Amino acid sequence: MVETKKDDEMTLQSKLAEQIPGLRESIKALIAEHGDKVISEVTIKQAYGGMRGVKGLICDTSLVDPEQGLIIRGIPVLELTDKLPEEIFYLLVMGELPDKAELKALQADFNKYAKLPDYVIDVLEAMPKDSHPMVMFDTGILVMERESIFRRKYTEGIPKTEYWGPILEDSISLLAKLPGLAGAVYQIRYKDGNLVDWDPKLDWAANYAKMLGCDDPNGEFTELMRLYLVLHSDHEGGNVSAFSCHTVASALSDPYYAVSAGLNGLAGPLHGLANQECLKFVLGISEKFGGAPTKKQLTEFAWDNLNSGQVIPGYGHAVLRQTDPRFTAFNDFGKKYMPDDPVFATVNLMFETVPGILKEHGKAANPWPNVDAGSGALLYHYGLTEFEYYTVLFSVSRAMGMCSQFIINRAIGTAITRPKSIGMSWIKDFIAKA
Ligand code: NMX
Ligand code: MLT
User: Is the pLDDT of residue 5 over 70?
Assistant: First the structure.
């Protein structure tokens, strides 16, 4: 139950304002004293290989440890699974969890901004009926750019030191609208187009669950939505969506431009779209073998997939070298609420089988499951069967990470992103001279 906020309560805005001068001073001192120390080198292989492992980017909201996985502000994600997503947003921005009053104040801000402008619905309804839900979602965000407070204030000429304030306001306003937007995409794309209004008495995830309209007699689906939105919230700064958002934001584009840019990257099958691909893969096995497969059948299916030059979705990672704790959290949820579900059983059989196959295949640096390997089976169980929609759920959550990184970057005045590129002739000259 969301309570109302009193005027004299500490807010995210006022607490962050107190924190920023100290943060700026610490960074200034760090650069003055240690600015020339080398923290990373780049090899030719890395320059051609997606800059894998190059440390050239600062992100304080979270860290991905190859063995432990996601750590948000020093707290392993498995210790945060009972929190509300908006508590995680507060944690990402502030570095500490909110107390009751601070949470209440943030939720009151969400209530203030949650209403989706009518023109967004008009745009979604006018889109081709076969548009991918991610295209509808991203378009919905972009079309709301006219709401940007930052753009207005920038045009009026606010000083650089104050940019973070309207960016925070834009971020809260945008995040508040995302359940409504994502709910509208679902209802217009797959159902009869009737939209469910935001309920100020419900938290962010509960509102989203209600807007999706899935059957939820005992609150399990709402619980899954809370978990889902917590687990996908952030994954340090170098993943495709965060880095894309960061780059666009560094040009002082506002959050509507930058978040939609980041989400366009999330819509790729090697990134967030892998969640739809995973369920497609799992259902494909069941279809081929007329039900839950045996281990032998699954092995055959996986090898056919690999031999035809495709990846096994939901497995592998650019940073992780162990089972993703986010996969573990979803798996625990499945074991608790749907141990006998055949789709969930197939996900588990994949977990038993695929790492061994990928090791034998010998290419993937990490044979273990990532966040996308099991989430679809849980959604499917509760009747959210339209798997092309799944990356929209990921997006609603990841917007929190992108926005929190954005707010901090404007608070500390991070420079425009502009690494130096070089071509093959530069590399050949370099090798010749070396
Ligand atoms: N199935 C088959 N081959 C794989 C897999 C996999 N799951 N993972 C990696 N490989 C291959 C990869 O394609 C590459 O092949 P090649 O040398 O022919 O180019 C080789 O193994 C080495 O790649 P890695 O260094 O292990 O992986 P990289 O860091 O380049 O990429 C991913 C990371 C996540 C893009 C990759 O593991 C992958 O494509 N996984 C499947 C898609 C997926 O689950 N993506 C979701 C990631 C999480 N998310 O939500 O964003
Ligand atoms: C993510 O959550 O962003 C993915 O696991 C991909 C990544 O970290 O590179």
Answer: no
Q: Which of 271, 304, 332, 341 is catalytic?
A: 271
- Strand-pair partners of 315: 369
Mean pLDDT over each residue of the chain, to the nearest integer: 96
Listed in sequence order, the residues at least 6 apart from 407 whose beta carbon sits closer than 8 Å to its beta carbon are: 16, 93, 164, 167, 168, 171
Cβ < 6 A, ligand 2 pocket: 64, 235, 239, 271, 318-319, 370-371
Nearest CA to ligand 1 atom 37: 316
272 Cβ closer than 6 Å to some ligand 1 atom: yes
pLDDT of the residue at 1:
59
Rounded distance from Cα 271 to ligand 2 centre (Å): 7
Note if 232 is an active site residue. Answer: no
Q: Is residue 372 within 6 Å of ligand 1 at its C-beta?
A: yes
Q: Examine the residue annotation and report whether 317 is marked as an active-site residue of this protein.
A: yes
pLDDT tens by residue, 374-386? 999 999 999 999 9
Kindly report the protein residue whose alpha carbon is nearest to atom 8 of ligand 2: 239
Closest atom of ligand 1 relative to the 52 alpha carbon: 29
Q: What angle do CA 279, 197, 14 make, to 5 degrees?
A: 95
Of 132, 232, 246, 317, the active-site residue reads 317
Of 114 and 286, the structure prediction assigns the larger pLDDT to 114
The pLDDT tens digits of the residues spanning 183-230 come to 999 999 999 999 999 999 999 999 999 999 988 999 999 999 999 999
Taking the model in full, what pTM does it have?
0.97
pLDDT of residue 244: 98
- Asked if 232 and 379 count as a contact pair (C-beta separation under 8 A), the reply is no
372 is catalytic: yes
Per-residue tokens: 218: 């005992």
